[in-house]
Amino acid sequence: MPTPPSAPPRLVVVGNGMVGHRLLTELADRGALARLDVTVVGAERRAAYDRVALSSYFDGRSADDLSMVEGDFFADHGIDLVLGDEVVDIDRTARVVTTASGRALPYDRLVLATGSYPFVPPLEGSDGPGCFVYRTIDDLEAISDAAADAPNRRGVVIGGGLLGLEAANALRNLGLETHVVEFAPRLMPAQLDEGGARTLRRLIEQLGVHVHTDRRSKAVESDGVRPTALSFDGADPLPTDIVVFSAGIRPSDGLARSSGLTVGERGGILVDDTLTTDDPAISAIGECALAAGRVWGLVAPGYQMAKVVAAQIDAISRGDEAPADRFVPSDLSTKLKLLGVGVANVGDINANPDAHRLVWEDPVSGEYRRLDVDDDGRVVAAVLVGDTDAYPALLDHFRRGQAPATDPGSLLLGPRGGNEVGTGGGFDPAALICSCENVACGALEVAIEEGCRTAGDLRKATRAGSGCGGCAPLVEQVLRVTLERLGEDVDRSLCEHFSLGRADLYDLVRVRGHQSFAEVLAAYGHGAGGCEICRPVVAGILATTSPGHILDGEQAALQDTNDHFLANLQKDGTYSVVPRIPGGEITPEKLIVIGEVARDFGLYTKITGGQRIDLFGATVDQLPAVWRRLVDAGFESGHAYGKSLRTVKSCVGSSWCRYGVQDSTAMAILVEERYRGLRSPHKLKLAVSGCTRECAEAQSKDVGI
User: Fold this and answer.
1) Nearest CA-CA partner of 19 in 86, 110, 112
2) What does the alpha-carbon distance between residue 623 and residue 577 come to, in Å, rounded to a whole number?
3) Angstrom distances, CA of residue 96 to CA of 11, 31, 102
4) pLDDT at residue 656 above 80?
5) At a CB cut-off of 8 Å and minimum separation 6, what does 183 contact?
6) What gap in Å lies between CA 309 and CA 23, rounded to an integer?
7) Distance separating alpha carbons of residues 268 and 558, to the nearest angstrom
């Protein structure tokens, strides 16, 4: 049905995910929404939210915190928003889409931004109770509810890729013994080589997550209420209460298929470089689109697609000729954190088998770096696990096709934590800082010179840092260096959420008696959810100042695994238990109890440097029984895992030593019992020596007597 000349063009956008919403914000920035009649239809019941940060939901961020919709965006721009109502039919002749509820929505231009759906392997029992996918906030709420009722506190994730490890972190944060099952011989097989995957696995297992690679899942066994085990071909079943499928995604192209649009052999709505389908009135963007021969599963290419289509629709609304904007395929380089472990890849490590390979692997510190260069020294690919500081420089060299100024090894093993994107304290204006939004250093510097003074200002002006957030430290670095170059005072705020430093924040929390991170953020900060800088700092402050238990309520989400289990996680996934022995003084009866516990649970024992006995090898299910025996004998946790007072070492002093002049043992016991449990930004070790012979090494401790 043709539109009357006086009526504005009717735009219907199917899908309100991250890419679909970016299309709307691009149109808003161009002023095009005022010239359009826009309807947005989303199958989910929530408007657009940050799916990249989905796992932060388990770190205390709410659905509102994850929302990408600012204020009354839809109402302010006259957009008709329809949520929880899926589009089921496209009549391309009449140019009308129909929803499941029967709404008929005419269009002049239709944009399909339907995204993707999780792939669930065809296993027996995969559709039963207790089986979930990891894709939406609703999925996360269902997983959280199931975890609360899990009788054996065990969960399994099928899939060892990016999303699978995100799901594993969610189960871990919910307090479950977590297992990851991957069909391939290594984790993240699409992004990492064998060395990088080996390092990643070691680091993840140190966090208590059990990894099972080269496993072909066979069936989900169930008792009718919840799963009981995941069975395999050629391996013993793995007991579990919850199964989460995160084995990849597939483009949501069913609507396009049913309407006769061309789709790829392996899925995806076929589009040209203007993102137009074989129907000139219909575009497709994001993970549902097959552009330049592939489906693009990252945020940055999706945002680029949204920008191209926004330019076309803007031209239509003005009555202008089609713009020259085209979708230019980008590489799939990424930088992210998985269970707190930094992982980055540049280019395709499998694309150039003749490249020269430089590898640095440090199993002790948990670092792996690989750099592939061609004969001229140009970067063709890279993998980083653990320390990812070199990523911006490597990505910049890769995308600009330039050879390193020095030898490639210096690029791979350059100054850690230094200025990787510039030299001499400055920045190369062409160096890419935010890959999600394609923002270079030069654009940030211009924005700062024009008045931006905070990372939040830069995010609004350039969108740098509004995608995955991995570039936030670099954005802060550019801001600081540029302000210093302009001769201005540099803000030394804790982070973008708090304008105060740690010392000032500590004083305010202590004096005013705040009890939770939410209270502190509301009183002295801004934004939502906090970040990896401010959350641990506030956690430490609250643990020091609050009278409550650190594992009660909101405080629990701020603590790490060791605090939850009162034990120190070891590299093989087991835990070590260290009872407190003030001053190293212990009775024969208590020594016998420690020996019996070590014997009965098969634990390796060691006298520590702080005069205590360490019991190694306890599994997480043994910890309650171990501690029950120790507590009944009068022991308490020695905080050998915490950022707190560890030990007060002492010599035997005047009680036994012929040189001792004072009772150092009694003083050490007094100090340790007085300050046990004291929380601090880092572990604290004290000592008391009974004479100038310094047998307790008091002068080299954090505090010595």
Assistant:
1) 112
2) 8
3) 11, 25, 12
4) no
5) 214, 215, 216, 217, 247
6) 7
7) 41
How far is 601 from 225, CA to CA, in rounded Å?
33
User: 612: which 2 tokens?
Assistant: 């205590």
Q: Across the chain, what does the average pLDDT equal?
A: 83
Confidence band, pLDDT 50/70/90 cuts, at residue 59: low
**Angle at 435 (CA atoms; ends 27, 394), nearest 5 degrees:** 165
Nearest partner of 10 among 281, 276, 278, 269, judged by Cα: 281
CA distances from 518 to 53, 498, 538, 555, 595 (A): 19, 13, 10, 10, 44
**Contact present, 673 and 537 (Cβ < 8 Å):** no
- Half-sphere exposure for 230 (CA within 13 Å, toward CB): 25
Tell me the residue type at 392.
Answer: P
Query: N- to C-terminal Cα distance for the chain?
Result: 89
Residue 547 predicted with pLDDT over 90: no
Residue 591 burial (CB count, 10 A): 13
Tokens standing for residue 581: 């022995």
Per-residue pLDDT reduced to its tens digit, 219-235: 988 888 889 999 988 88
- Name the helix (H) or strand (E) containing 563: helix 561-565
Distance CA 93, CA 84 (A): 26
For range 607-614, the mean pLDDT: 72
3-state secondary structure of 501: coil
Q: For 273-301, b where at least 16 C-beta lie within 10 A, e where not — what string?
A: ebbbbebeebbbbbbbbbbeeebbbbbbb
Q: Which residues contact 364 (CB under 8 A, 6 or more apart)?
A: none
Phi-psi region of 362 (alpha: psi -120 to 50; beta: other; left: phi over 0): beta
Do the beta carbons of residue 42 and residue 16 sit within 8 Å? yes
Q: For position 418, what pLDDT does the model report? A: 42
Rg (CA), the chain: 29
> For residue range 345-354, what is the model confidence (pLDDT) as tens digits?
888 887 778 8
**What's the whole-number mean pLDDT along residues 85-97?**
92
pLDDT confidence of 649, banded at 50, 70, 90?
confident
Cite the DSSP H helix spans in 263-338.
299-318
The length of the chain, given as a count of residues: 705
Pairing mode of beta strands 217-222, 227-232:
antiparallel
The whole-number pLDDT of residue 99 equals 92
Span 30-39, mean pLDDT? 90
C-alpha separations of 25 from 33, 77, 444, 448, 537 in Å: 9, 10, 20, 23, 34
- DSSP-assigned states of every residue in 581-637: -GGG---HHHHHHHHHHHHHTT-EEEE-TTS-EEEEEE-TTTHHHHHHHHHHTT--B
Q: How many helices (H) and strands (E) does the chain have?
A: 21, 35
